[in-house]
Amino acid sequence: MSDAVRFEAHGDIGVITLNRPDNRNSMTPELLDAFTTASAAARADTGLRCLVVTGTGSCFSSGADFKSTLQREGDGRAPHEKSFAMYEPFLSLLDLEVPVIGALNGHAVGGGFGLALVCDLRIGAREAKYGANFVRIGLTPGMAISYLLPRLVGMARASELLLTGRLVEGVEAEQLGILNRAVPAADVLPEAMALARTIADNAPFAVRETKRAIRRGLGLEIREAARAEAHVQARSLTMDDAREGMAALLAKRAPRFTGR
User: For the chain, what are the domain ranges?
Assistant: First the structure.
C-alpha cells in the first residue's frame, strides 16, 4: 500500500493524512489512488464517530499537478469523464456517514480547496492561502466548487472569488465563513482533533442523522454538480488559453490570454 495517503484510527476518531509534502500534496495519480484506499478504509471502520483529513508540510493540497496530468486516463472515457475522475477520490468523502473535519495545515488551492469544501467543518492555518484560481490559468472550476462555495459564503462573495481567482488568507477565510476557525499552523491538527472529540462524544446515531438532515435540507447534490462542471472543464482544457495559463504558472509569469 502506498504511503502517499495514510489512514489511522485513534479510537473512534479517524485521521486521513495526505503525505506527499515534497509535491505539495498535489493530485498525482499515486496520491489519488492512495486517497481512494484510505477513504474506503475509513468507511469500513464501523467504530468511527468522526474523521479528520489533514496533510503534511506547508500545503494541505495544492490541487492539480501541472507537471503531471489534469485528467485521469482510461480507455473509452469521454473527456468530461476523465475530468470528473480526477475528483472522484476526494468526492468519496461524501460517502462517509460520520462528520468530516478538514484540518487544513497549509495552503488549499484548486482541487485541494475543493477537498476542503467537501468536509463538513474546516479548521485552517492563519498563514495559509485558500481559494480556486482556475480562471487565472484558463480553466473552469471542478469538484463542485462553484456549487459549494456560494452555499458557504453567499453568491456575491463566491462570485467575486471565483471570477477573480483571488486567494484569501486564513483570517479572511474565517471571516467569510470558509473556515470555522483560523489558528496558527501548529494548532490546526490539535484544534481539529479537539473538535472531533467533542463531536464523537455525542450520540452517534443522532450525529449521523443530523449530518444527513443538514445535507438533505440544503439539497446538496454535490456529485451531480461536479459532473456538470467536468463537462465544461474538459472543454476548457482543450483551449489555447489553458495551455498558456499553465505554461505561465510553471514559468511564474503573467499569462497572456487570447480567448481561444
Answer: 1-183+205-260
